Amino acid sequence: MGETLVTVVGNVATRPELKMTATGAAVTRFRLAATERRYDRAGERWTDGHTNFYTVWAWRSLGENVAASVGVGEPLVVQGRLRVREREDRGQSYVSADIDAVTVGHDLSRGTSAFRRVVKSRQSSAERGADPATEPEAAEAKRSEPQQSGAEQAHLERAETSKGGAQPREASQTDAAQLELAPF
């Protein structure tokens, strides 16, 4: 608590890699390139300045959603905790800037995006086909299910079919399950 958050706007430089930790937590890692832009008054044009590269770490559901939604070259806005790490390897010292992401989103000043809410499914006894007479929670689950009118259902179907533009990528559960558990 009380940690300073940074916000970095840049482009995805490497393919996001989704892995599962030994404890079953999802983690996605990718590199983000942030290039400063400067106006050159003499040349009367914008030029690129220095590029900083950050390793972005997204954990749990954020990591799963990033892996399913983000591709190389896409403009992003990343907010998280900056971690500057120093290490030494074969007499050479290295410094890396990592961001433990709190939130990640597409930079909509440079394009459009289509949001899809992820619904986590947890199979209840009602979904397993449990008998409401013998399992009270199955009866309660059936009573508490939201009911949609025919008009509401038709509206949702029309909205889903009328969406245009680029379709977001969806991560395959089998792809995620086949990932190695080796460290990055």
UniProtKB/TrEMBL annotation:
It comes from the Bacteria. The keyword DNA-binding applies. The keyword Lyase does not apply. SUPFAM superfamilies: Nucleic acid-binding proteins. Residues 119-184 are annotated as: Disordered. PROSITE patterns: SSB. CDD domains: SSB_OBF (cd04496). Keywords: DNA-binding. GO terms for molecular function: DNA binding. Homotetramer. This is Single-stranded DNA-binding protein.
